[in-house]
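explain this chain.
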Amino acid sequence: MALEEDAPPPRRRRLEPLLLDSLGIEELRLYIEELRGEIARVEADIGRKHSHRSAADAFFKRPG
């Protein structure tokens, strides 16, 4: 039982898997485009946060 308590909590899913069996080819293509749009949005946010962090690091960097 101690092993279960020490285990990290399971990762939470951000997106629920879509049941693909009921979708046609065009619907699947549209779904892929939606996912690509979401990936682009997340990558843009990562870039923005990275820029903010770099600026903060440069501002607080002590002279050597």
The chain has a mean pLDDT of 87. DSSP finds two helices and no strands in the chain. The CA atoms of residues 45 and 59 lie 21 Å apart.
